[in-house]
Structure formats: structure tokens, C-alpha cells
Amino acid sequence: MLKKILFVALAFSLTNCLVLNPAGATIDREKGSEVASRITDAAIQTDLINSTILVGRPFISIYSLIAADIASIDSAKYYVKADVDQCVSDIKGFKGFVLGSAIANILSCQDLKTDGYLTGDPFPSF
User: For this UniProt entry, which residues form the secretion signal (predicted)?
Assistant: First the structure.
């Protein structure tokens, strides 16, 4: 009886990961398409504010429109939410206003970790 309970618990935990991770239902993951949208929005917002302050009229660079491509975001994968939040805050924050959104994107968003189905990609660190 105990073996059956342990087997059911193990099977449930494995299928839970297989179902919840791809569906994006876990708390600390974000779908790549949403990550791409957040990074692009942050880059556009930073460009608009920087150009308005420095030049006196709003201007959006081509680099802010392709910010997700610069950051190498794959819309089919899932990313760790804390890393994405840090990347977006760097683009919107002091680094983005001083260096510009494109350079802040290159410096902060190039090493975003994808999250796999069971173990993460790469394997999670303990």
C-alpha cells in the first residue's frame, strides 16, 4: 500500500511539472512572448523619455523595436521571472537612461536563463 502511495505521489509530481511548466502556470516563469513584449516596451519607453529630455522631441530608435531580438528571446520557451524583472528594471532604470536602451539591453538581457520542463535549462543550481 505504501509503495502505491509513493508511486502515485511521484507520478503526480512529475506530471504536475510536465503540465504546469509548459502552460506557464508556475509562479516563477514567464512565457517568451510576454518577455519579448516587456523588454520591447521597456526599451521604447526609455528611448521616448531619453529623447524627449535630451533632444526635446520624442524619438524611438530601431534598436528598441528589435530589443527582443537583441536579447535573443525565444517566444516558445519560458524564462525565470526574477531574471526578466531585473533585465526590464535595468533598461528602465539608471543604466538605461545613462547608456541608452540598446546598450542596457545588451548588458543586462543577454544571459536570461530559459526554464525547461522538469529540470530547467541548464540544470538548476542548488
Answer: 1-25
**CB atoms near residue 11 (< 10 Å):** 10
Question: What's the Cα-to-Cα distance from 44 to each of 49, 93, 114, rounded to whole Å?
Answer: 9, 13, 24
pTM reported for the whole predicted model: 0.71
Query: Is 99:65 a contact under the CB 8 Å cutoff?
Result: no
The Cα–Cα gap between 108 and 3 comes to: 48
> What are the residue ranges of helices labelled H in 1-126?
2-23, 32-54, 62-65, 67-70, 81-92, 94-99, 101-109
- pLDDT single digits (tens) 105-115: 999 888 888 87
